[in-house]
Amino acid sequence: MARRDSHERKVRGSQIRDSRTEKNRQERHETPSAGDQTPNRSTGIRDVSGVLDSFVESPETEAVTRRVERWLSVNRPVHVVGPTGCGKTALAMRVATERDRPVVWINGDADLDTSDLVGDYDEQEHVSVRDNYIHNVRKSTDIVRDRWVDNPLTVAVREGATLVYNEFSRTKPAANNALLSVFEEGILELPGQRGDDRLVEAHPEFRAILTSNGTEYAGVHEPQDALLDRLVGVYMDYYSFETEVEIVGSHVPTAPDPLARQCVDLVRTVREEFDWTLGTRAAIIAAEGLTTVPAAQRDDSLVVEVMTDVVASKVSDRGELAAASECVADALDADGGDGQ
């Protein structure tokens, strides 16, 4: 792998150590300014407060939460599988933060490789030694050596963090081989490391939650059986109507309850009619779009227009999009358009 300069380092996911800037702020009791909220590039500290603030507590979400927490309590990695937009990521982050341990985030994709997970010799460290011990004798030595940089998986294993590996199955299976020994023996092997530093023993508090869409989705790889054998699978589906309405309301506080209900109802209607993977996220987006217009101006034509934009990414041609728009219009006629 070609060496890159440290300032070009692309550390994937979130690590958990405080940056020097943040540490200095804490020592001076300073608060970051509104324009200084971006995580330090080298640490990638993830702010999940927005995810947690909008998480809805309902019997359905609590039931799935308990299942995931049960397996984490006996140190079993959990693989949460379900259709896009059903709330897998929000649930994983909720469970992770409830453990009161640091959270490390990885987002899977086809370009992710083993070094992006565990780390690599990616920087050069220059050390200068000046020896003036003997009077009138000066000894100078310059040493250039490679410096190892941990990536998210190694950080989580060392520090006992909760790893949230989102879209796990979008990463090519070979890159995820590093997880095998971690989940089975509690040992992470660093392929590029040397000597005693090659093996990292997992911290007792290390846990992992992986999320994936089903294998029928485009861009999804089927994980190797050896890895799946070490995971506990928790399958999710779309929540009930009432829970979806609560979720829309929590994400779009300006949406009145009738509008949230209308958005959820229309998304579910289109989902069933066309067998599309339209999740709760689509209803949230529709509510966001409709609340940009005063309530008095939200007529049926506007609702059809907004819903058409929301579902457009799911269609293959204009004819199918027209059919979806007609489906929305028919649904509005049937219920009288009571989303004000």
* CATH top level assignment of the largest domain: Alpha Beta
Structural domains: how many: 2
Looking at the structure, the CATH topology of the largest domain is: Rossmann fold
Oligomer designation: single chain
Give helix % range: 25-40%
Mean pLDDT: 80
- Give me the secondary-structure category: alpha/beta
- Biggest sheet strand line-up: 2-5-8-1-9
The CATH architecture of the largest domain is 3-Layer(aba) Sandwich
Approximate strand percentage? 15-25%
CATH H-level superfamily of the largest domain: P-loop containing nucleotide triphosphate hydrolases
The separation of the N and C termini measures 58 Å
Unreliable residue stretches: 1-45
Structure explained in plain terms:
It is a single chain. The protein folds into two domains: 6-118 and 154-235, P-loop containing nucleotide triphosphate hydrolases (Rossmann fold); 241-335. The model is unreliable at 1-45 (pLDDT under 50). The chain is an alpha/beta fold. A hairpin with a 7-residue loop joins strand 3 (119-131) and strand 4 (139-150). Strands 2-5-8-1-9 form a five-stranded parallel beta sheet, with helices on both faces. Strands 3-4 form a two-stranded antiparallel ribbon. Strands 6-7 form a two-stranded antiparallel sheet. The chain is built from 13 helices and nine strands. The chain is 40% helix and 16% strand. Helix 3 (59-73) packs across helix 4 (88-98).
